[in-house]
Amino acid sequence: MNTLDGMNRRDFLAAGAGAVAATLAAGGTTLAAPEQARIAVARGGAKMDPDKAAYQRLKAAIDKLGGFDKLVAGKRVLVKINATDKSSQDANTSPEMTAAVLRLCKENGPKSVKVIGQEWDGYDCKRKDRPTLREVIKKEGADLEELIHWWLKSTQYVNRVPKTGGWKQLWVAKEIFEPDTVLINLARLKTHQFTIYTGCVKNCIGLTWHMYAHHCTDDRNPKAGASDKHPARVAGWKRFPGKLSGAYNDVYRSALKLNILDAGEPTYGWGGPKPERIHTFAANAVVVGADAMAVDGYGMQMLHENRPKVIPTALADWTAGDSVYVKSNLTLGNYLAECQKLGAGQADISKVKIDEVKID
Amino acid sequence: MRSRSTSVLLLPLLLAGCACPWLRGRQADPAAVLRAADERLAEMSFAKLTSFPGPRLFDYMNGAAEAYYQRGFRVLASAETKWRTTDARIELYRVDTPANAALLLDDHDDGKGKELPAGAGSASWKSKELEGIFHRQAFFCRVIIYGNDKEAEQLLDALAAAVDQSIAE
User: How is chain A split into domains, by residue range?
Assistant: First the structure.
């Protein structure tokens, strides 16, 4: 399983999973950032069974980065998927990639594997002749912890206030910070009606309690977060790029050990904006790396290349042009670019080492 | 072929509708509408019928709730059902005015859908799933059918018609 043979230590540390393993070996303290962000992209399997194709893509990409065993062996593995939508599986991390990640974890001797997140019943979203997310989680022998919704009291969260972004409180799932825990971020590549793009960086929001605090001036008040007419909410969207980038750089980033972008069928039009309706295209890909910014930079590029007049690139001005997504961008900014300014990673894919592999 | 099969499915619905004058007057409560629709559909039954009033819409959905609040959202009733091998989800929203219900349809309509046999205005799309939407009075209804074959088409038409007829005139 481990493909470290033949790699020297420098190469290993440069690789995403290698850097992750080094981080873990140091008890969670980052020893050294990789000299150059590195991602692996696996493509292919269009004619395969979707479950087999997802597994083979993932395994090929992970092997390119040095293998999974150093990352998960003996560890408590937490997997944050995106299960936000109960009516269409196209809005969530796919069951096939979820199954692939859980299976690959299990094959590498973890202490435990658990899916965790504050979601909206996407676990039970149906598709004819396909399993639900809940069914694949159970089938692969993983646990599921549904974090308590933000209007209910919970002891699942701990307050970790970012230094930047103007935060006063940020309650985050405390399990992700526990020793011997490996957090794997498994997001669906898709557009977002208010923020243009959602991938690995934005998926972290589902690990927090008052997730709408990311676009609300009031970090704690559920009534403010839930009302589109509340002044704190109305004013909040403009603060989203600053708040998310601060939270990502100061809080989530250190907990994330691996980022996986499910790009088997990237999704447009989830929730709009009008006239967009939810639809996908077959890309048969997965993007993997330790740097969520690099992974998202590549994902954004995939969407841009598919629809260049509609989707901007990762670090472009997301307020320029007449794309319906740009015009609906309530944040009036670009959260990936704000992350980049903070040095939270490398979303400029011209500066990312990209290992591509085909499985066909 | 679709219309013949659909007629078979809709026949008990129509007969039940004729025999159920007590259904009138339930229009304020979408859950009552869905219960009435359930009674009309002899070949299936609704499960997990749940209401989400006011701010509790966030119990049901994430940030997408904002689109409904902007249109005077009052209460949602949702249910699931299954006919033969096909699952379905029904969402019935009541908003403050018929005009806002029509605007909700407009919000969701890309102009490329087909009309449904239901509602004052409607649209439906065929992808991996079927989705149909319509508005009637102060109600906006969304039906998702987990399939895209003829059976799914029949189920979409039948559910939309049953809910539409159960919204009391």
Answer: 9-24+33-358
State how far the alpha carbon of A138 is from the alpha carbons of A96, A121, A124, A157, in Å. Answer: 13, 15, 12, 25
B19 to chain A, closest Cα gap in Å: 33
CATH topology of domain B2-166: Protein Transport Mog1p; Chain A (3.40.1000)
Q: What is the pLDDT of residues B2-35, one digit of tens each?
A: 445 555 555 444 444 443 343 344 557 999 999 9
pLDDT single digits (tens) A133-172: 999 999 999 999 999 988 888 999 999 999 999 999 999 9
- Please answer yes or no on whether A227 and B70 come within 8 Å at the CB atom: no
HSE-up of residue A129 (Cα within 13 Å, Cβ side): 7
- CA–CA separation, B72 and A316 (whole Å): 36
Q: Which two tokens stand for residue A204?
A: 């972290």
Element containing residue A39 per DSSP (H, E):
strand A38-43
Which of B62, B80, B146 is the best residue to mutate to test the A interface, defined by the most A CB atoms within 10 Å of its own CB? B62
| Residue B60 touches chain A, beta carbons under 8 Å | yes
Q: Which of B69, B91, B147 is opposite residue A228, by nearest beta carbon?
A: B69
- Distance CA(A281)–CA(B167), nearest Å, equals 38
Contacts of A128 in chain B (CB under 8 A): 85-87, 129, 146-148, 152
Nearest residue, CB atoms, B58 vs list A88, A226, A276: A226
- From the list A197, A200, A171, A199, the residue with the least C-alpha distance to A183 is A200
Is-contact A112 A209, C-beta < 8 A? no
Q: How confident is the model at residue A290 (pLDDT cuts 50, 70, 90)?
A: very high
pTM recorded for the entire structure:
0.89
* Contacting residues for B53 by C-beta, under 8 A, at least 6 apart: B74, B75, B76
Q: Decide the pairing of beta strands A285-289 and A256-268.
A: antiparallel
Q: What H or E segment, with its residue span, contains residue B130? A: strand B130-136
- Chain A residues 203-222 within an 8 A CB cutoff of chain B: 212
Helix (H, G, I), strand (E, B) or coil at B125: strand
Other beta carbons within 10 Å of A331:
24
State how far the Cα of A150 lies from the Cα of B53, in Å rounded to an integer: 17
Record: contact B107-A274, CB cut-off 8 A: yes
Spatial distance between the Cα atoms of B102 and B95, rounded to a whole number of angstroms? 10
Domain boundaries, chain B: 2-166
Taking residues A222-229, report their average pLDDT: 70
Contact B62 A84 (CB under 8 A): yes
Does A96 contact B at CB distance below 8 Å? Answer: no
Looking from the CA of A214 toward its CB, the CA atoms found within 13 Å total: 27
Contact A102, A136 (CB under 8 A): yes
A230 touching chain B per CB within 8 A: no
Q: What confidence score (pLDDT) does residue B6 get?
A: 53
Distance between first and last Cα of chain B: 31
Task: For residue A338, give the 3-state DSSP assignment.
Answer: helix
